[in-house]
Amino acid sequence: MGSGSNLHTLLFLLAGLALLAVAWCLTLGVVRQANEAPNTVPLTEPRADAVSESSTETPIETLRRRYAEGELSDDAFQRQLDNLLESESLGQDEREPAQMLE
């Protein structure tokens, strides 16, 4: 009974050490990846293609997007849409699109 029990204990310890070695390697990989992270673009920053899309939006498209994202109330959306449509019909395109939306 003694030698079989010792063999099981030794195998259990070896399995535990192997598991610790794997965990250590995985931890080192995560740490290396985290150290390289400042060189990458975080997911929270806007993508370059998203920025270019918004820069080519017309003022009405920008207004609709802001309304869809919940930035504007129904009244604010309608008021600004009316202002944009009125300025387009009068030919008042001298103002910047950002000024028309404020």
Describe the structure.
This protein has 102 residues and is mainly α. The protein folds into 2 domains: 2-39; 48-100, no CATH class. It has helices at 2-36, 48-55, 59-68, 74-90, 97-100. Helix 3 packs antiparallel against helix 4 (74-90). Residues 58-85 form the SHOCT domain. It comes from Haloferax mucosum ATCC BAA-1512. Residues 92-102 have a biased composition (Basic and acidic residues). This is SHOCT domain-containing protein.
Question: Descriptors for this entry?
Answer:
SHOCT domain-containing protein, 102 residues, mainly alpha, 73% helix, SHOCT, 2 domains, rod-shaped
> The biggest beta sheet, please?
none
Helix percentage: over 70%
- How far apart the termini lie comes to 85 Å
The rounded Rg comes to 31 Å
Mean pLDDT: 78
Broad structural category: mainly alpha
What portion of the residues fall into strands of 2 or more residues? Answer: under 5%
**Count of discrete domains:** 2
Question: What is the overall silhouette?
Answer: rod-shaped
- Beta-strand segment tally: 0
- Ranges where pLDDT stays below 50 over 5 or more residues in a row are none
Which series of helices and strands comes N to C? HHHHH
* Count of DSSP-assigned helices: 5
Biased composition (Basic and acidic residues): 92-102
Organism: Haloferax mucosum ATCC BAA-1512
Protein name: SHOCT domain-containing protein
Domain SHOCT: 58-85
